[in-house]
Specification:
Length: 294
């Protein structure tokens, strides 16, 4: 009988137990103690169940056969690992996430800026019309005040001359032209007219100052309103652009995560093309780009 591994039948025949199945004849003889061949003892207590001598020929057919002189545990482990599928490449290495925020900002600006710029332009146009109207009204009011003053001086001058002439003629007819009464009445008339002129000029100056102040105040109010509107519209425009950029970024992230799921669920890793991981979304098709990790 050769020294190959014992079959179950051979083990029972020689040692009256199947415990020696798979052992070599030499190893079984060395470990047999109390149950000789043909013995009626059917127990396995006659064997020393220490680890059997390693038989390199017992390695599965799919593994390389190693001789006892060259067997090494590291080689054996490596032989097993060689039969396992290679681990997949990390997804980030195959398809790093990339998002061009500057390009997204340019696209979002091109889409949103015209709308908000038009709103601001229309509002500023209305402000300019109001401003021009206010300036025109103030200019006309000032011009009217100047005309009224000029007319007042003309009429007042004529009335004053008439008053003085009447005084002179009255005293001349009485033969008292050079009298002190004539001079006194003329001085009184002059003083009364001076007071009249001063009162008018004070009123004229107040009306003119009020017209100018009202016009300046209205222009200041319009300027403040224009600045506030420009600020608010600018905020709305920036918020719309930022929101659009975030939307594009979220779409890119969703696409990236979809590609990652596809990558790790696909058993054929090499069949996944990392340059063509695009997925249709509600807002349109987007294409995943390769580039530096974002």
């Amino acid at each position: 009988m050769s020294d190959s591994s014992l079959t179950k039948e051979e083990a029972i025949k020689l040692y009256n137990t199947e415990a020696a199945t798979g052992w070599s004849k030499v190893a079984a003889d060395q470990n047999f103690k109390t149950a000789p061949a043909g013995s009626s003892n059917g127990s396995d207590s006659g064997f020393n169940f220490s680890v059997p001598t390693f038989d390199p020929n017992s390695i599965p057919v799919s593994q390389p056969t190693l001789s006892t002189s060259t067997i090494n545990i590291d080689d054996y482990i490596q032989a097993i690992q060689d039969t396992l599928p290679a681990p997949p490449t990390k997804y980030l290495e195959a398809n790093p996430f990339y998002f061009d925020e500057q390009a997204a900002n340019e696209v979002a600006t091109a889409e949103n800026a015209p709308y908000y710029d038009e709103i601001l332009k229309d509002y500023l146009g209305e402000v300019k019309l109001t401003s021009d109207k206010n300036r025109g009204d103030a200019t006309r009011m000032l011009a009217d005040l100047d005309k009224q003053k000029q007319l007042f001086f003309q009429n007042n001058g004529a009335e004053f001359e008439k008053t003085i002439r009447g005084i002179k003629e009255g005293y001349s007819g009485k033969g008292l032209y050079f009298s002190g009464d004539n001079r006194r009445d003329q001085n009184e008339a002059l003083g009364s007219n001076t007071n009249k002129l001063e009162t008018y000029l004070n009123t004229y100056g107040s009306n003119r100052a009020k017209t100018t102040a009202d016009e300046n105040f209205n222009q200041s109010q319009l300027n403040t309103q224009a600045l506030n509107k420009a600020r608010d519209v600018g905020r709305d425009k920036n918020a719309a652009i930022l929101g659009e950029v975030n939307t594009q970024k979220n779409e890119a992230i969703d696409e990236y995560l979809y590609g990652m799921k596809t990558y790790y669920k696909n058993p054929d890793w090499k069949s996944v093309d990392p340059t063509n991981l695009s997925v249709a979304s509600e807002t349109g098709d987007t294409t995943q780009k390769l580039g530096a990790a974002y």
